[in-house]
Design goal:
The protein is mostly helical. Helix content is 79%, strand content 4%. Strand 1 and strand 2 form a beta hairpin.
Length: 248
């Protein structure tokens, strides 16, 4: 086994594929991390770090489990039925369902930020604070959607399962390190939360579009997100400068 791995990683092309896959998986993992940060920040402070670690840990377990069934995952791209002339596979159905969930969740959270006296939620009753279990369930749903998309992307880039496993472990490790600082940063800068919710709304629409066969280049999506973050960063600098002048 170790001899086979040594032979595999003696090929420079394998290392190039690994580096590319890690970079791609980290970028794709940003969506998941933003969702986890927003969701866990609604929990009592004592539970937030635990929820983030459980959520990211579940993402790792789910992706490794899916890697063990690569042959089945690849078959998820085969159409299972047709709607209005459009063949839909299980992957498409998962993407559409996940996209609808993201659109619903982002829209609801935006409504909560715009109207603090929004009244009881349909699915959360009169609860003023999200429960730990509800947060984990919602994280798990998105973990499944992003994990399936991530594994199918990995299969398209390399046929070597060990390379995929290493890329997944490195990606989740990066998410684990970045989760707490990102969540604290978003908590200190409330305007970023609205921007992040807008990202999730956009990502949800993209998932739905891809589920129906309309491919949207990821580069355009992340370029738009990066530009929006840059503009918000400049706004933050402007607000701090204004506050400093008033203090002086």
């Amino acid at each position: 086994m170790f001899a086979d791995l040594a032979t595999l990683f003696s090929d420079p092309a394998v290392w190039a594929a690994l580096a590319t896959l890690i970079a791609l998986e980290v970028v794709l993992g940003i969506d998941n991390l933003i969702f986890i940060s927003i969701l866990t920040n609604k929990l009592p402070e004592a539970q937030r770090q635990k929820a983030r670690r459980i959520g990211i840990g579940l993402a790792l377990i789910m992706r490794l489990a899916l890697l063990g069934t690569v042959a089945i995952i690849v078959q998820l791209k085969e159409p299972v039925f047709t709607v209005l002339g459009q063949g839909l596979s299980w992957r498409d159905i998962i993407l559409i369902a996940g996209g609808l969930f993201l659109v619903w969740k982002a829209t609801k959270e935006i409504h909560h930020h715009v109207d603090p006296d929004h009244g009881p939620d349909m699915f959360e009753g009169d609860a003023k604070v999200m429960s730990f279990g509800a947060a984990i369930v919602q994280i798990l749903i998105l973990d499944l959607v992003f994990s399936v998309d991530s594994i199918i992307t990995a299969v398209g880039m390399t046929p070597h399962v060990p390379v995929m496993v290493i890329a997944v472990i490195v990606t989740v490790a990066v998410m684990l390190v970045a989760a707490d600082p990102l969540a604290r940063f978003m908590e200190r800068n409330p305007t970023l939360v609205m921007l992040a919710l807008a990202f999730l709304l956009m990502i949800g629409m993209v998932l739905i579009a891809e589920g129906f066969g309309a491919h949207v280049p990821k580069g355009y999506i992340y370029a738009a997100m990066a530009f929006s973050v840059l503009v918000e960063f400049l706004n933050m600098l402007g607000r701090r400068a204004t506050q400093k002048r008033k203090a002086d």
